[in-house]
Design a protein that fits this description.
Layout lengths: L2 H24 L6 H7 L6 H12 L2 H14 L1 H7 L5 H19 L5 H9 L2 H34 L3 H49 L3 H11 L15 H11 L7 H4 L8 H32 L9 H9 L2 H39 L5 H22 L8 H24 L5 H25 L9 H17 L8
Helix pairs in contact: 1-9, 1-15, 2-9, 3-9, 3-13, 3-15, 4-5, 4-8, 4-13, 4-15, 4-17, 5-13, 6-13, 7-8, 8-9, 8-15, 8-16, 8-17, 8-18, 9-13, 9-15, 9-16, 10-13, 14-15, 15-16, 17-18, 17-19, 18-19
């Protein structure tokens, strides 16, 4: 057990628990538990909003899986990852004030609330809840695996023991703190990510003898590592371009990101978050993926690429500093998984139980159910994560694509196209969900159709379905 590394991580976890406890005390006297627990009372300022979006998007994929894939594929994956820089900008720019204003008018606490009110359709709400539960289980599993990999590498514990410690840590502060705790800890965690990735990148460059030496080592091993096409030349221009839909503009359709665009306090805060979020996302993504590819020159032959960040940190930094730096990926993973847990539990409690099973449930019952559902969901994901895949990033990207194919057009066209109706939304969601799952299995067996990423075709088809069914069935103007 490496206590020099563990001590800073333990201190970090204690600080996170303290934040969660303070947040839970702040909402103890609240008369609107749902609004506070799931949306933080809509009181987020610009900095906290930006950092909570960055921290939520920056997940195990960004901090472990992405660098691990860059380690395997070289600079081609770094280029691919940088398409994510504009993610926060697109989300806030496209959804913007109109989304926040309509959410308040509809008294929407969740994305499903918004869709249900906009389309006046229980079926849209139920379909949305099903899509969120299906795809976010995959995304949460990726975070559980990432957290366990990190703790496993640092402590030397077995993977299962590390997974258990991580799950218990996250569940304690999510079930007690809710969204306010998540948003506050996201701000702290986002700041840790910036500092930690900077320190580690500098240390890796020094350990590699400088960037020229690192580049020469990579060229000597495999010249493809320093090209945009991947170590085996399989990153084509069509695939890289289409990948941007998945991790760039398509992120507008991710419920865990969209819900944050409901939670800011003023439009000034939103504009500030636009700038801060874009800069910080670009900085972190570039740093982490460069660390991944540079690490190949410093430590070739790492067997499990997802462990490259903790392994290289332990190699190039003194133990106490490695512990501080590794708090960054731990922060990223925790901040993503806590948001996903809240999103899925809100879908079950708010959008299914309160809407269709027991609308008059007491606040005490709702509180107990919210805590209980969050804990049960976390436990289910723990079981799913016991046998992890080789590269967790593809587990996370599967969830991203499915959610985007399901939600992007009902959200965006629901905001801006007055002829959009529930028939268009239902057709779009069904086309997106079914098309994405079917094409995922087809591409897995036969290679990518047209050489582009799986998400592209379902997104295009779901757009066509939305337009056609909105115009063909009960076409009428929607009054915003």
């Amino acid at each position: 057990m490496n206590w020099g590394v563990l001590l800073p991580l333990v201190i970090f976890l204690i600080a996170i628990f303290a934040t969660g406890w303070i947040a839970s005390r702040q909402k103890a006297g609240s008369s609107n538990f749902l609004n506070d627990y799931f949306l933080g009372g809509r009181e987020l300022g610009g900095f906290v909003l930006a950092m909570t979006m960055v921290a939520t998007y920056g997940s195990a994929s960004s901090f472990l899986g992405g660098p691990g894939t860059a380690y395997s594929m070289g600079f081609g994956w770094v280029l691919l990852a940088m398409t994510q820089v504009v993610t926060g900008y697109f989300v806030l720019l496209i959804l913007g004030k109109k989304f926040a204003i309509l959410s308040r008018r509809y008294k929407a606490i969740t994305l499903i609330d918004f869709l249900k009110a906009r389309y006046n359709s229980p079926f849209v709400a139920i379909l949305s809840a099903i899509a969120i539960v299906i795809f976010l289980f995959s995304a949460m599993t990726a975070q559980w695996v990432g957290g366990a990999r990190l703790i496993e590498t640092v402590t030397g514990l077995s993977y299962t023991s590390a997974l258990f410690i991580f799950v218990v840590s996250v569940l304690i502060y999510v079930t007690t703190g809710g969204f306010r705790a998540v948003a506050l800890t996201d701000a702290v965690q986002g700041s840790i990510m910036v500092i930690g990735t900077t320190i580690l990148l500098i240390a890796v460059i020094i350990a590699g003898g400088g960037i020229p030496n690192i580049m020469q080592d990579l060229l000597s091993e495999n010249p493809n590592l320093v090209t945009p096409y991947g170590s085996e030349g399989n990153l084509t221009a069509a695939y890289v371009s289409s990948f941007w839909i998945l991790v760039g503009v398509g992120v507008v359709g991710l419920p865990q990101i969209a819900v944050r665009a409901m939670s800011y306090k003023t439009s000034r805060g939103m504009h500030r978050a636009l700038v801060i979020g874009t800069i910080v996302t670009g900085f972190i993504m570039l740093n982490m993926h460069l660390i991944g590819v540079f690490a190949r020159a410093v430590m070739p032959g790492i067997e499990v690429p997802d462990t490259v960040i903790p392994v290289i940190a332990l190699e190039v930094l003194p133990p106490w500093l490695a512990g501080i730096v590794l708090a960054a990926p731990l922060a990223a993973i925790m901040s993503t998984v806590d948001s996903l847990l809240l999103l899925v539990s809100s879908s079950v409690v708010k959008d299914v139980y309160l809407s269709y099973i027991q609308p008059n449930a007491s606040m005490k019952t709702v509180k107990r159910l919210s805590f209980g559902v969050t804990a049960v969901l976390g436990s289910i994901v723990f079981v799913l994560a016991v046998d992890p895949p080789e590269l967790l990033i593809f587990l996370n990207l599967f969830a991203f694509g499915g959610l985007e194919a399901a939600f992007i057009w009902p959200i965006v066209l629901g905001l801006y196209w007055k002829y959009g109706n529930k028939y268009g939304a239902i057709a779009s969601m069904l086309t997106g969900i079914i098309g994405y799952i079917a094409l995922h299995f087809y591409n897995t067996a036969n290679g990518n159709l047209f050489g582009i990423h799986t998400v592209v075709v379902p997104v295009v088809l779901s757009f066509i379905a939305y337009i056609v069914f909105s115009l063909l069935i009960k076409r009428q103007v929607y009054r915003y």
